Write the structure tokens for this entry.
Amino acid sequence: MSVPLIVKVSLLFLLLLLWQNGLSASVLLQTNLAFHVFFHCLKELWDMAQSFRMRVVTMRFAAFIVGLVVSLGAKSFAQTTSLQFVHLSADPALSPVTVWAGVPVFGMTQFIPAAQNIAFRNATPAISAVPNPFIAGAQIPVSLFIDSALTANITAVSNTTATPTIPGGQFTGLRLRRGANISFVRGVQDAAMFAANPSGTSTRLSISTLVDTASVSPTSVRILFYNAATDAPGIDVIIRETNDLLAAQVGYDQAVAYNIPDGNYTFDVYQGNPRRLIASYSAPLRTLGYTGQRVVIAATGFLNPAQNRNGAAFGLTAIPNTEIIAQVFSFRTTDPPSAGNALPAVSLQAIHASADPTLNPLALWLNTSVFGGTQFAPLGTNIAFRTATPARTSLASGTTTIPLQGNTNRPTEALITAATSGTAPGAGFIRVPGYLFTQGGNLTLMEGVTDTTRFARNPSGRSIRFQLRTLPDTATFVAGNQTRFLLAHSATDLGDILFDLRDASGTMLATYGPFSYGQTFLATTIPAVNYSLVMRLNNSNTPLGTFALNLASENLGGRRVLVTATGFATPAQNLGGPGVRLLAAVNDSTGRFFLLPGGFTSVREQLQLSNSGVGMTLHTVSPNPVREAATVRYDLSEAKEIELSLINAQGTEIWREERRFMPSGAHSLPIDASTIPQGAYMLRLSDAKGNSVAVRFVVVK
């Protein structure tokens, strides 16, 4: 019996209703049930037509239904999925081309020109919809085809159909995923006519799709780095200004994602084994307006054009993933980095930052057995408080040398024992299971105390129980005029802190933190010059101490250096242990360590310190820090007899100005700091009645 037209139409709208109440587009369009209902109903409607006019009306009705399906589906899916084609094939015979996308519509593959006349190092916008083959001017959201098997054909520009005319230019089984889908046309037509890939990866013409679902911060750039250079080995990309590793040994047809703060940068590109600088590129991300955007940065072209049919030379190309026409930008080459130091691929250094008197000195042992069992090797056997071991790339166990490279990313066991010169761990140890270190520099801080009941609690509520904390840093090169700078917090009874970095004239350069005891750290790269480092509590502008960070004077250019707060803010409440100081450990084969010049004032002392009172106001010393000469200004509300004195960080008075009678008003006095040793000082103004006010300043050399 014939099914009435109203039933057929009702079935169609029933499917639409189900769709809007949870069934996905791919399920409805790809299952046998959906195919049967749609195809059968449309066929019956066609058979019912008795004239050409009726056929036209019927097809218009069918087109209306399809359009309605598309429009309703677009509401739910169009904003979550996009597709972008990027032409990265440097084969001279493949520029330009057209890419045809074959999408399933009612069980049949419909080819649509997704990328027309696309040249090498060019791209389409991020496509969220493709032309509707049934309704002129209408669009089908690409989100309808999530998880569907798609087809792509690459043809010459002269082709007006999707019939593949380029050998090997047809690709099936492609999958569209939810998120930003970026499809790279890469490789060459005839691999025999081009240089082989050094890693043996096939270089034949293909399409690779990268899917990214991460959101982009409005103050950063989301970089998707992709290597499309067929004759290139694994490459490293280092951001020169921060010394961060953007890409590490990324081989052909491999990709990595990286969020980088907004800014203009320089990218140094290296090939490894043996390490060699390929080129350096200016990457003005901020100037190009890439802030808050997702951007593909692709290595394209050939390292050796002469061996690759004189194709385009190697370069970096930036392709923004936007819904408007992509403004592709080829980065320009720039001067190579200055001479510096290549850092070990894997190294391990221990820094003793535990002020617990019962843990001084100690030894640190690691179980280095790769095949199971126990084979302990010492990283250090007599490590005193505020000292460091050298940065080691291997450990010695008896007559056996064990490279660290083979133990990365493998949980092992660490033992903390009393200092010993023996060949195995002694009795009375602290066991640390699951100890882990990774590629790059691993700086292991020994922090905390053994008996927490005998020491003051951490003001921020952090556990102060003894721990091994490893700070990983993936930097592999430090320029000679830069220092790789790490900051940490190892003082158990000190709350969350900030560090202000100032130049020699006292100008604020940056604020780092907040740092929580035993939890957070910073790794950055700064010019190797002299600074002052002001430490203060989080949410407070009152300095706890000012220290000299002399990267130039200490010859720390081209080095990695860790600075951490060590000791106790209130020694009397911590078994009379040492007070807070900043320890610097140089992460190299020397293992050099030293305390930063400067002083720390406990919170209680600092709050009692005032620069104003009893008719006197002492203003900040300017400049601060000071090298040679400075000026101090003070105000008197009445005429009185006063004197100025200078006190060092140990509380010793090292200089006193002759007492004199001064009238009321504003006064100034020059200070000659050329003969004053480097460090932190307090300048005190006193009157004849014993009243005093004071300010702090730092002398740097």
Remarks:
- The first strand starts at residue 81 and ends at 87.
- The chain has four domains: 5-77, 81-333, 346-600, 609-699.
- Residues 346-600 form one domain.
